[in-house]
């Protein structure tokens, strides 16, 4: 049996808004094996981004155990979780967050540990070649298409070969054709280097490209409680939120 990259047990996350505690996630048990490539699906507001924030250590669970790459995130403080994220997680968002005054290569170079200039440049050339941007790496983000900018953001997330790659709607701002190309590329690069990939998407067509798919309702029992309340009797939903 393969090792687990992600192990969640009894994880709860609430948000407090205007003195009211809103239960957002209760995940009794969820494991993802190392090297798995998984599309996480679900309606807007169902907690998909919150799951990624917990897995990366940006947020801390209120209760439960959360191990990623054998690291017990529930036992770490914020500074320790930040260090964990730098070493173990590549994060890709819908908006690429590239620095506009730096070239594509310089944006990625920020992620590299200190080293000889020639070696860093060779590594960058190899990576930009792999994503089809060998001739664009010295261009500014504003001179690149949205798909090219997202490919740059993918290089930035993957160049450190993190064991876990988290992607939140990574193709959400791309047109249909570019979205499929970029998602295929992300899947291929993660497979090549053995990184576990969890990608949030709304798009069923793109989710079909993944070896595995899961609806967030299958792991989050808060959502199941909300949606059954919504279907049967709308006022119950308010009570469920306040419980
Ligand atoms: N910092 C916060 N404070 C209060 N509520 C929050 C906070 N962050 C998220 N929420 C709430 O938590 C719920 C889940 O949010 P989340 O962003 O995880 O959903 P999502 O499934 O990723 O949605 P979308 O697909 O629209 O991005 C939503 O009801 C949202 O309003």
Précis, in short:
The chain is an alpha/beta fold.
Structural commentary:
Keywords: ATP-binding, Nucleotide-binding. It comes from Paenibacillus mesotrionivorans. By secondary structure, the chain is of the alpha/beta class. Helix content is 40%, strand content 25%. It has 9 helices and 9 strands. The protein has a 5-stranded parallel β-sheet with strand order 6-7-8-3-9. It has a 4-stranded antiparallel β-sheet with strand order 2-1-4-5. Strand 1 and strand 2 form a beta hairpin. Helix 5 runs parallel beside helix 6 (176-193). The longest helix has 18 residues, at 176-193. The protein is globular. The structure holds adenosine-5'-triphosphate.
CATH superfamily: P-loop containing nucleotide triphosphate hydrolases
Poorly predicted runs = 228-243
Q: State the distance separating the first and last CA atoms.
A: 39 Å
Write down the secondary-structure element order: EEEHEEHEHHHEHEHEHH
Q: Ligands bound here?
A: adenosine-5'-triphosphate
Number of strands: 9
Query: Mind telling me the CATH class?
Result: Alpha Beta
Helix content: 25-40%
Shape: globular
* Rg for CA atoms: 19 Å
What is the residue-mean pLDDT, rounded to a whole number? 90
Helix count, DSSP H or I runs of 4 or more residues:
9
Largest sheet, in brief, is:
5 strands, parallel
